[in-house]
Amino acid sequence: MGNKHLLQRRTFLKVVAGTAGLALAGATPAAVGKADVWGDGDDRATIIDVDLCNGCGACVEACRARNLAGVPQPVHPYPRPYPAWVRSSDWSDRTDEVSRLTPYNWLFIQSCTITVKGVERRVFLPRRCLHCLNPQCVTLCSTGSLRQSHEGAVYINSSTCLGDGPCDRACPWGIPQRQSGVGPYLNFAPNYVGNGQTFKCDYCRSLLASGENPACVAACPQGAMRTGPRNDMVKLAKDLAEQRGGDIFGLKENGGTNTIYVSSVLFRDIEANMLRQGQVGVGMPSLRPAGASMDKENSLLRAVLLAPAAGAALAGLRMWREKQMRRKP
């Protein structure tokens, strides 16, 4: 690392320090940390009926057909971040991976074998973003890139996402997936901020906004997915669970979500069998109720306090980058 690199870093840190000071004083950019709404619109919820799903994968194919082409290919080699606090993550040579969530695969079928009343059966669960009613990822995003639509879709604004990680750390189920070497951070100081871009299910928000079903719901040949006004879907989920003596996941978890699972089998039993069969891990969410240890709560609190400063620093960084570009002959 030469003197020129060191001087540029010092200049950058001055910009960050200055803009962070403004942020702590309350002068933050208007766009930072704002969502479109906070679940105050006509939320559309989806019921996923575990008893009807046969794991055919039609929903996965429909999701990929709609979204795969929109995920960019990364530049190689990646700009090496300094300091390297965010590890690189590259799925560009595994875009056909469908056994877990990746930047290129936003929905997958999670399954396990379970014995119920002496009868063995296979359980299938389509897994994607649950679209929480009050999503922490939106609250904690330092650049305001995560938003929530009037229909309840939690989505990422790709024009500002830096892949810096608060969203995947905040998500109780580890849904957001990062791809290095893509995104706006490449256009300004790529060695100093960000490390790619984060991707996840956006609930086909443009379809929801026009009154249509998400692609996965429309493609399901078993009728295992249904989308409608959340109040109606909550009532239907409760009725189905009562009829079967079954269970519901998504009504209260993490404050409630717009993805509601219904099953005749208890979800704690499904979770236990998935754990035993190695079906839970990175990119393969659990079904445990959302909860946080004290360490995680403290970590999230620090993120909340730092988010305005980080957002303002980003704005200052952009100004610095533009100034540097104007100086070039």
UniProtKB/TrEMBL annotation:
An annotated GO cellular component: cell envelope
GO MF terms held by the record: 4 iron, 4 sulfur cluster binding; metal ion binding
One Pfam family named in its UniProt record: Fer4
InterPro entries, per database record: 4Fe4S_Fe-S-bd, FDH_Electron_Transfer_Unit, TAT_signal
Coiled coil: none
Chief location of this protein within or outside the cell: other
Signal peptide residues on this chain, from the entry's feature table: 1-25
PROSITE patterns named among the record's database cross-references: 4FE4S_FER_2, TAT
UniProt keyword terms in alphabetical order: 4Fe-4S, Iron, Iron-sulfur, Metal-binding, Repeat, Signal
Designated name of the protein: 4Fe-4S dicluster domain-containing protein
